[in-house]
Amino acid sequence: MGPICGAPRVLPPNLTCVSSLLTLLSPLLASLFFSLVPALQFWRPDVTQALKQQAAAIAGGPHRLRRASVVAQIGLGLLLLVGAGLFCAHAA
Question: CA–CA separation, 82 vs 74, rounded Å?
């Protein structure tokens, strides 16, 4: 396939092992890194803090934002995973 609209191709569309590993490992490492903090907070519960958070959860509180960010993170991760899979399928 030639250049689109006369624009020169800057990078060749070659897939190497390094770029494939980087594409697969970077979302995995990012999701592991960003999931460690809530996991560590879960394993060290403070009873007083937990009761305060439950009282705040009844009124809404910061848990809605946290749940929304987790849902958004999972959705974007899934989108990136599907996109990488489609890219690898069409590149082969």
Answer: 12
CB atoms within 10 A of CB 60: 9
Q: Is-contact 88 27, C-beta < 8 A?
A: no
Q: How far apart are CA 61 and CA 64, in angstroms?
A: 7
Provide the pLDDT for residue 13. Answer: 64
Using only C-alpha atoms, the chain has a radius of gyration, in whole angstroms, of: 21
Q: Please enumerate, as own/partner, the contacts of 6-13 that have beta carbons within 8 Å and a separation of 24 or more.
A: 13/91
Question: Which pairs with CB-CB distance under 8 Å and at least 24 residues apart come from 75-80?
Answer: 77/27, 77/31, 80/27
Type of residue found at 83: G
Over residues 18-37, the pLDDT tens digits come to 777 888 889 888 888 888 87
